[in-house]
Design brief:
The complex is a heterodimer. Chain A contains no helices and 9 strands. By secondary structure, chain A is an all-beta fold. Chain B is an all-beta fold. Chain B is built from no helices and 11 strands. In chain B, a hairpin with a 2-residue loop joins strand 5 and strand 6. The chains are: A mainly beta, B mainly beta. At the A-B interface, strand 4 and strand 8 of A face strand 4, strand 5, strand 9 and strand 10 of B.
Chain lengths: ~110, ~120
């Protein structure tokens, strides 16, 4: 599995856009990039997944440059309820099932 | 459509006792995964099961830990003769027969405290 590196923590204020960048220099051809969100005392929740360029859903956007060695999760207009740990995972979604969660990025949104 | 259910949410056991953690996957899901999260750490894969079969238990300690997913009923993670180091949050996830295996649906977890 490709190793990922993301910031330990980020602070933001309500209404701002939060961008979390994940580095995955050793990403393989068949690997996808997947992001999960985890609130305190809850299980992780799937947010978004992509292979290249840009993916958008009702929760977030995922930007992936052409070389795919990094990706950026963008949370538009965050609210206090977006305070959580965000995990970047990279792997072959067709064959891998062992999700590997590192320390993640703790995003704290303040009023 | 109910999500993944786990019970109990909190479990306290004395050293040497047995802990039984239960997980009911989402309706229609036949793949179950168990993960453990130690304090201040990320989740670590333990075991992957399909109905009546253990597919991959490479992340599960060889001794004292066992898992099953019977034809009827929830998946069970059993920890025998618990020790203090077993104190952690145990999460169960499920995924459907088809679809990307990276899109797993997690339950709320069982927090095990060994005293």
């Amino acid at each position: 599995l490709a190793k990922t590196t993301q910031p330990i923590s980020m602070d933001s204020y309500e209404g701002q856009e939060v961008n979390i960048t994940c580095s995955h220099n050793n990403i393989a051809t068949n690997d996808y990039i997947t992001w999960y969100q985890q609130f305190p005392s809850q299980g992780p929740r799937f947010i978004i997944q992509g292979y290249k360029t840009k993916v958008t859903n009702e929760v977030a956007s995922l930007f992936i440059p052409a070389d795919r060695k990094s990706s950026t999760l963008s949370l538009p207009r965050v609210s206090l309820s977006d305070t959580a740990v965000y995990y970047c995972l990279v792997g072959d979604v067709s064959n891998d099932y062992k999700l590997s969660f590192g320390a993640g990025t703790t995003v704290t949104v303040r009023a | 459509n109910a999500g993944v259910m786990q019970n109990p949410r909190h479990l306290v056991r004395r050293r040497g006792q047995e802990a039984r953690l239960r997980c009911s996957p989402m309706k229609g899901h036949s793949h179950v995964y168990w993960y453990r999260q130690l304090p201040e750490e990320g989740l670590k894969f333990m075991v992957y099961l399909q109905k009546e079969n253990i597919i991959d238990e490479s992340g599960m300690p060889k001794e004292r830990f066992s898992a099953e997913f019977p034809k009827e009923g929830p998946s069970i993670l059993r920890i025998q003769q618990v020790v203090r180091g077993d104190s952690a949050a145990y999460f169960c996830a499920s995924s459907p027969e088809t679809g990307h295996s990276y899109e797993q649906y997690f339950g709320p977890g069982t927090r095990l405290t060994v005293t």
